[in-house]
Amino acid sequence: MTEDMNLLKDLIMITILVVFIIDLSGAILSMKMCIWRVLKGTATYRPISLKPLDCSLCSTWWACIIFLILTSQLSVKTLMYAALLAFYAENIGYILIAVKDIVGAAVDKITHKIV
């Protein structure tokens, strides 16, 4: 049971990292704009798709599968874990944003009491 929990923790951490990079950091948009400039020069940027790199669901799925293969832990059960985490990747992003907002509100209240 502990081994399963450790594996699930690893997969959750991979999911959080992928969601942060793809959905929250802006790195993918910067990469897309750079590719656009190389290919189109000064033309006005129009959104392009770089799936699976700009999709947190797709990237979580593949990152988890690669991790499971590299650690020799690929099974039906672990594929199910990967699928569920990929399915909830967007919601995990919303949770991260909500936690950030809650912490920000708490800091605002604290600083207003101090000042």
Please provide a brief summary of the model.
It contains five helices and no strands. With 115 residues, the chain is mostly helical.
Amount of beta strand: under 5%
SSE order, one letter for each helix or strand: HHHHH
Give the CA-CA distance, first to last residue.
50 Å
Q: Please, what is the oligomeric state?
A: single chain
Structural class: mainly alpha
Helical proportion, percent range? over 70%
Low-confidence stretches: none
- Rounded to an integer in angstroms, the radius of gyration calculated over CA atoms is 18 Å
Q: What sort of overall outline do the alpha carbons produce when their principal axes are compared?
A: flat
Q: Mean of the pLDDT scores? A: 93
Q: Got a strand count? A: 0
| Number of helical stretches of at least 4 residues | 5
Largest sheet: none
Structure, explained:
- With 115 residues, the chain is mainly alpha-helical.
- Helices cover 78% and strands 0% of the residues.
- It has helices at residues 2-24, 27-40, 56-70, 76-87, 89-114.
- Helix 1 runs antiparallel to helix 3, helix 1 packs across helix 5 and helix 3 runs antiparallel to helix 4.
- The longest helix is centred in the last third of the chain and has 26 residues, at 89-114.
- It is flat, with a radius of gyration of 18 Å.
- The termini are far apart.
